[in-house]
Amino acid sequence: MNKHGGYIGEEKDEVLDFSVNINPLGPSEKVVNNLKESLNDIHRYPEIDGAKSIKHIADQLKITENSIILGNGAIQLIYLFARAMNFKKILIIQPTFNEYERAFKLAGGDVEYHILYPKSNFIIDINKLKDKMYSTNPDCVVLCNPNNPTGVYFDKDFIEDLLKISKEMNSFLLLDESFVDFLEKKSAIDLIDEYDLFILRSLTKFYSIPGIRVGFGLGSEKVIKRLSKYQEPWSLNTLALKAIPDIINDHSFNKKTLEWLYEERQFMLYELKKIRYIKVFQTYTNFILCRLRKSSSYKLQDLLLKEKIYIRTCEDFNGLDNKYFRIAIKNREDNIKLLNALQTLDIN
Amino acid sequence: MNKHGGYIGEEKDEVLDFSVNINPLGPSEKVVNNLKESLNDIHRYPEIDGAKSIKHIADQLKITENSIILGNGAIQLIYLFARAMNFKKILIIQPTFNEYERAFKLAGGDVEYHILYPKSNFIIDINKLKDKMYSTNPDCVVLCNPNNPTGVYFDKDFIEDLLKISKEMNSFLLLDESFVDFLEKKSAIDLIDEYDLFILRSLTKFYSIPGIRVGFGLGSEKVIKRLSKYQEPWSLNTLALKAIPDIINDHSFNKKTLEWLYEERQFMLYELKKIRYIKVFQTYTNFILCRLRKSSSYKLQDLLLKEKIYIRTCEDFNGLDNKYFRIAIKNREDNIKLLNALQTLDIN
To answer: Where in this chain does the record put each Aminotransferase class I/classII large domain (chains A, B) (predicted)?
Structure first.
């Protein structure tokens, strides 16, 4: 297992954690209050497959319940997908979240990379990707969109082009949209019946409830049926199931979050770009990839931790090195603390 | 997925659910209060592998932390074990919990049964089992102890005899002790380093918290290392991790539970045996297997549900039929309601 998931040192209550990409506006009071109430129900088993909560998601997304599967966090669904689909050759678009590779390798798959580079701002050239697909002949391509840790978003037309190429090659697409809620209405959800596509969605990052573990996946009925066959019963706990109806319909929280992010992302990108020793990459979501021009991100991490600020170094992402780091966008007060610390650091 | 995990009808708050084997004394107020507090922490990721909670279990059981793995309920560990160990031939001692078979088959294993019979009160004849093992040559034997749904407990000497036979044959033992806390100090835990043995333990049944999903497994360092390699990160939620230290050291709750069970089990066995149309099997844990002499358990289930009482029919267990049913032992007031209903039913 890796070391990530936020700062876990003893003094974690005093450390500003920019290493995890969690919405700073939540969880909402309503969600927490309802979870408190649901503690009265923990002497019962949770619903075995979460059918009632699935219904709420289906209604909200206007799709059939048979296109949805719940996960003990989106991460359970990555491993479940790898296991159930049993692909032999997988092409992962890198740098990206490391767990795809681990999941497919554990399931016995042969993993290849299509690496994106900083000189092209980590954007995909569809022709190069197509060439790579023709030369590697993958059963499945994996894309995280918006991509963690680069923050790049590939638009719907691009996704559909990629799906068309995949269809020609009889290849599947695993599309991780764990951060898509931070953009407005940009999911590829309406393509699940037309293409061999499985979409991952997370509810914990946008709604600030990573502690209770809840995500879901979207695919054709055939795909969902196959995944369900392989899933452990009672995968979701009572609180996760209870939270779904509350959060999935909380339009005011959604609106407030997108307003916060629009404002704060502009502010952070503008201010970070003033700092000479950092190269800042464009982002479309709630975190920002940066690169130190000279020093290593370990050194920066150490110096910031003395100021009780924690960042994510990125040396473990394929295609990045020990000069990269990632920061979450937080609320203005916290963001200013980070900016002040960065501005006054003596790093060479 | 199966249909079990308790009564889930709309009027579930009014129905006495004897179908799930949950301790009626819990969850304790202390546990619920601490879980309420831990809701302040759900905006953070849970610890990725639950190392701090594992330390509490290790201290309590006086074993090394490297012998312990946590699970999103013991059920996650059944599937993880099947997947990670990748056994080809598995011998399951039946009738028993159905998920072992599903887990091993999904992992590509070939499953055989050693079926126990009511005429011998579902007790294992070690010589017959040995013959079966020699004729089937399993990589792994699966035993639930005390066994669900028969309530039979196989003592430590028996388990060690079985392990010796397994060792001769180079076979593994999966020993599910999910209900062992309902007996005092009877785990096979001190054998994990001497034999190829993996023990499953549940914390949700004894401590009445099935809603938050928490179990653990015990094995040699080598086995635990292998299972950890295959486990999804962040499998346990924040509340499950938080509950472990509270419950694992709650000696007064343990004592109270064992006192309740001793008293109530005697009472229930004595009273049930007075009912002519039921055959009652001896039990060593917190549930009782019964068999109707003439009628079907579906009919009994229907009739009882009219009295707002729900029981578990057992037609889906290998070796049982539609005359069997299982009831949990609850508190005196609820037990009397069940007994009264059974005594007045007109079932032929």
So the answer is: 14-341
Query: H or E stretch including B91?
Result: strand B89-94
Please state the φ and ψ torsions of residue B181, each to the nearest 5 degrees: -65, -20
Q: What's the CA gap between B50 and B69, in Å, rounded?
A: 9
Task: Please report the residues numbered 168 through 227 in chain A whose beta carbons come closer than 8 angstroms to any beta carbon of chain B.
Answer: 208-213
CATH code of the domain in which B224 resides: 3.40.640.10
Q: Is the ipTM of this complex over 0.90?
A: yes
3-state secondary structure of A324: strand
Which of B248, B280, B308 is a domain's end point?
B248
Q: What is the DSSP letter of B41?
A: G
Q: Is the pLDDT of residue B264 over 60?
A: yes
Q: CA A279: distance to chain centroid?
A: 23
Of A38, A208, A232, the CB nearest to B75: A232
How far is Cα B148 from Cα B286, in angstroms, rounded to an integer? 10
Q: Report the number of distinct structural domains present in chain A.
A: 2
Checking DSSP bridges between strand A287-292 and strand A278-280, what pairing results, if any? Answer: antiparallel
> How far, in Å, CA of B139 to CA of B96, rounded?
19
CATH number, domain containing residue A22: 3.90.1150.10
Q: List chain B residues with CB under 8 Å of A4.
A: 48
Please state, in angstroms and as integers, the Cα–Cα distance from residue B308 to each residue in A48, B7, B8, B14, following that order: 22, 11, 13, 7
Q: How confident is the model at residue A39 (pLDDT cuts 50, 70, 90)?
A: very high
pLDDT computed for residue A2 by the predictor: 42
Q: Which residues on adjacent β-strands are paired with residue B310?
A: B17
Q: Are residues A128 and A211 located together in one domain of the fold?
A: yes
Contacts of B27 in chain A (CB under 8 A): 42-43
CB contact (8 A) between residue A232 and residue B27: no
